[in-house]
Write a structure and sequence with these properties.
The chain has helices at 4-21, 201-219, 223-275, and strands at residues 30-34, 39-40, 45-52, 57-66, 76-78, 83-84, 93-97, 101-109, 122-131, 137-138, 146-150. It has 276 residues and is of the alpha+beta class. Among the domains are: 28-150, Immunoglobulin-like (Sandwich); 224-276.
Length: 276
Amino acid sequence: MFNKKHKLLFCLLFTCLIFIIFPKKVGAVSIELSNYPSTISEDSFSIDVFVSGPSDGKNYLRIDLYKEGTNQYFGETFSGSEWYSGSIGTSYFAVDIVNSTASATLEGRFGNPSSSEYPGPGSYRLKIRRYTSPSNYSSNDQQTPIAVDIEVDRSTPEPTDEPTEEPTSDPTDTPTVKPTSTPIVTKSPTPKPTKTPTPDPTEETEFQEEVLGIQSEKESPTPEEELKESSEKPKVSILAIVFVILGISFVGFSGFAFFKQKGLNNNVNGKNKEII
């Protein structure tokens, strides 16, 4: 029969055996996720996190996105002041563990992964990484990664910004102040005397002949005008001569008759005087 000492020894051995066989289950940390997105785009998203089991103190939580079966993690986590995706654990979102539990709402986004981390749209996994120091994080936390679809297509070139027409508005007259500047005095170049070309006498003679020819052509009467002038000029000159001759003859005849009459009168008077 077992006495009390044997029973006590048996209980101690059994307890040690439990700690040896199931070491991870004693003091294990579990992380539960809720209110998470089913699809992730380039916009930010949020997720609720509940942590239980760690020692009291400060912990830091990070959102990891990765392709199932790989360890290529990407994504950015908002620390409360900036978006971060580096390797310093204490730069992520801080939570205070009190009575071995803590809860928080994390904000994450797609970030700027490399082609090896993000080969293209499809099905990915999301989980939480917990840091206890700048370089120490726990890989033994119990949690179930959730499946998410990422729809970001990096193969399509980004569209170029095309100029958009701005709405036209009535311009307001605003006085513009023109800067005053000191006028710069520039010397105007002195014009060089130009030589007057000496006229060629042959060219001047030809030009005069052309002018005289044009004037002679303009002044020379037509054959009809020549005939008319030739027919009218003799008539005018003959009539004038006839009238002049008639006038002279009339004057001469009148003078002759006058003097002749006067001479007869003188002779008669002379004879009468002699008789008396």
